[in-house]
Sequence to fold (89 residues):
Amino acid sequence: MSVEPREIRLKRLHMRSIRRGIKEMDIILGGFSRSALAGLSPAELDVYDVLLAESDHDLYQWVTGQQPTPARYLDLVSQISSHAGATPG
Fold:
C-alpha cells in the first residue's frame, strides 16, 4: 500500500474543496483550503477528507449554524466557520 505524499494530498483535498455541488461551499471550503489546509495535522486532514464526502447541504447548515454539527466534525467545522466568518452549530 502506498502512502500519498502530503503535497499531493493537499492538492487533492483543495480540488475537492473548490469543486463542490453548490457555489457557497466552493467559496467557503475553497477559501479555507487555500489559507488553512497546509497547517492541519495529518489527523485533521483525515477528518477533513471524510468531511468532504458529506453533502453540501449538510455542510452548509453546519458551517452557518443552521443545524448542529456532528461531534466528530465539530472542531474542524468550527475552524471553517471562523474562517468564513460564520457561527457553527
Notes: The chain has a mean pLDDT of 93. The chain has one domain: 6-84. The first helix runs from residue 6 to 18.
